[in-house]
Amino acid sequence: MSLRQMEYFLAVVEESSFTRAAEALHVTQPALSHQVKALERSVGGALLERMPRGVRLTPMGRAFLPHAQLAVRSARQAERAARAAAGVAGGELHIATVHAVAVGLLPGIAARWRALHPGVSLVMREYGSTDALEEQLERGVADLAVGPEPAEWMGPLLRIGREELVIVVPFDDPLAGRGAVRLAELADRDWIRCAMEPLVDGVLVLDRACGAVGFTPRTVLRTEHTSTAVRMAAAGVGVVMAPAHMVRGAVGEDCVLLSLDPRWHRPLAVFSRVPLTGAAEAFAGLFGAGATAAPAGSARPD
User: Fold this and answer.
1) Which is nearest to 228 in space by CA: 196, 271, 253, 200?
2) Where are the alpha helices (DSSP H) in the chain?
3) 8 A C-beta contact, residue 292 and residue 158
4) How many CA atoms lie within 13 A of 13 on its CB side?
5) What pTM was estimated for this model as a whole?
6) Angle, to 10 degrees, between the axis of helix 106-116 and the axis of helix 278-285?
7) Dist CA 161 CA 281 (whole Å)
8) 107-142: pLDDT as tens digits
9) Cβ-proximal residues to 146 (8 Å cutoff; 6+ apart), any chain
10) 20 to 30 A Cα–Cα from 195, which one of 38, 97, 242, 262?
11) 144-148 and 157-169 as β-strands: parallel, antiparallel, unpaired?
12) CB-based contact 241:169 (threshold 8 Å)
């Protein structure tokens, strides 16, 4: 079994066709078929079922697929890491993050990176939740992640500061003239919720916080992306809790941001499966981060 054989197998799965996979890989179809058959002999059974119109995975193929994906991703990441260790003169740096951080924090960092290291391009992968971000980084889809600090992480982790969680309301809201609000004052409000909302001990942070002051938030809209939730709040659909830097990046000055009293913050971090070297280390350095062995934290009041 070879890495090339797994790459060929994955190409056939992605294209659902030996012909299209061969074209994508710039090899002949007989050569591709030969390598896939050799892989099937190696694992002891058929991975693909040849159909009149395309191919589909066999039960053995479905079991093999995620491991082949991980092996190929890890090999590519190993190659990038080896090249990065020699410096930051060229190549690619793959970054995983969540949508809110991508919108609110990373544009400025990416601009600084391009100015300092124009030879290294960035490939950014955005996820809707911290769980998805951590899971995909574990699978090797990126060289490092930037996002809310994980509750548990066994690899290298650099704290890069905190983000404030604020309440977003439209300009004509009765609270718009104030700088801060107590959560209990929002007991009778409609709420917008999004998939990015963090968990504390398995409970969504807003449910936990509101329950602590005596009410359950009345949810009127759920969305995948925080930027969508913020725009809905700016339009008057309901109120939403969101990171302050992300709100400014999503809608600028089209809404009012209210700090919570007491203020709410959550730590942000750069984290990776392996020690940061070369380009990855240089990228983390743009945040002015320092290594920490402290346990990860969750959103909480000061």
Assistant:
1) 196
2) 3-15, 18-25, 29-43, 59-85, 99-104, 106-116, 130-138, 205-212, 226-234, 244-251, 278-285
3) yes
4) 18
5) 0.65
6) 120
7) 17
8) 989 999 999 888 888 999 998 778 888 888 887 788
9) 95, 96, 97, 101, 105, 106, 160, 268, 269, 270
10) 262
11) unpaired
12) no
Q: In degrees, to the nearest 5, what angle opens at C-alpha 140 toward C-alphas 118 and 97?
A: 60
Q: What is the DSSP secondary structure assignment for residue 150, as one 8-state letter?
A: P
Query: Could you tell me the two tokens for 189?
Result: 């409000």
SS3 content of the chain, % helix, strand, coil (to 5): 40, 30, 30
Q: Is the pLDDT of residue 282 over 50?
A: yes
First vs last C-alpha separation in the chain:
54
Residue 86's identity, in one-letter code, is A
Encoded amino acid at 140, one letter: G
**3-state SS, residue 94:** strand
